[in-house]
Amino acid sequence: MTGITGVGEGAHTLFAAGLKENQAAEHLLRQVLLKTRFEVYPHRDTRHQQLCLRSQQWEKGWAKNKGLVDKFATFEEEDAMFEAEVEMERRSSFLPMLLLVCLIAAIGGMVAYVVIQVRSKTPLTAEQASGIVTAALQGPGPAIIHFRSGLVTSSVAEKPGDPNYRLLQKAGIVKLANAPRGATLVAVTPGGERLLTGIPGFKKWKETDGTFSYQVPLAQRQLVNIANIAMNGVNNAKVEYTWKWAPNQLGEVFDAGGPLVKGFSLWDRQTLINKYEAAFYNATPTRATLPLARTDRGWKVSAE
């Protein structure tokens, strides 16, 4: 029995030693193969390391770019939200402003309507009538005298032998002298030149025949007062007023009631009044009427 046990232990010892030898041999073989691979194919390990390095770099770059993209997307979302808020604020502020403008327009329209209605029912005042009548009196313009100086030949338009030239001579404004072929030499005196040039509206120009033409105002129509305003309904009125002539120095010469004109014959006086603007410039003011009508732009002279 003891012999059998010894044989078993010896066999176990030999098996364990053989196993250790096999493991050592296997480890040695593995070291040899690994060394051989590194020696025969060294470039494979380098390439593998490069690929790994590039892969790591790409992953880092992608992670960085992805972060930027995420930030950019976040900025876009915030910008869109900001624009939306601005638009909402603009709309919210525009609506009250629009309502305010509409309210102001409505109030303005109402006020204008009330003013128009009140004016449409307000009678014509003396102040309004005064401005309209004054404009109507000045419309025709002043009374004006025309004559020429120089060698004046009688024609249809100009007759130096008529009483207007003789009246100017009596007033010391011109001197008359007979000239050959029925012409008349008309010379303006220095005093006459001063008087004429001092009158507003005076004009003088040279004609083609060498003579000089004179255009001189004599008198202006002037409103004295508004005597009465008679309303005919709401939009029509009849204005009664008085007016007079306001003569200047030359107008005093051509006053039909003055001493110079009265010194002429009846025929010559009528000629002066009918053809040469002589008139009763200092007479009593004249009474007249003027019909007016209300329009959209105020009171105007009526065609009636």
Strand and helix layout:
Elements: H1 2-40, H2 42-121, H3 126-138, E1 143-152, H4 163-170, E2 174-178, E3 184-188, H5 190-197, E4 203-206, E5 212-231, E6 236-247, H6 249-253, H7 259-262, H8 266-275, E7 286-295, E8 298-301
Antiparallel strand pairs: 1-3, 1-5, 2-3, 4-5, 5-6, 6-7, 7-8
List keywords for this structure.
55% helix, 8 strands, 304 residues, alpha+beta
Structural commentary:
- The chain has 304 residues and is α+β, with helices and mostly antiparallel strands.
- The chain has a domain at 126-301.
- Helices cover 55% and strands 23% of the residues.
- It is built from eight helices and eight strands, in the order αααβαββαβββαααββ.
- The protein has helices at 2-40, 42-121, 126-138, 163-170, 190-197, 249-253, 259-262, 266-275, and strands at 143-152, 174-178, 184-188, 203-206, 212-231, 236-247, 286-295, 298-301.
- Strands 1, 2, 3, 4, 5, 6, 7 and 8 form an eight-stranded antiparallel beta sheet that branches.
- A hairpin with a 5-residue loop joins β2 and β3 (184-188).
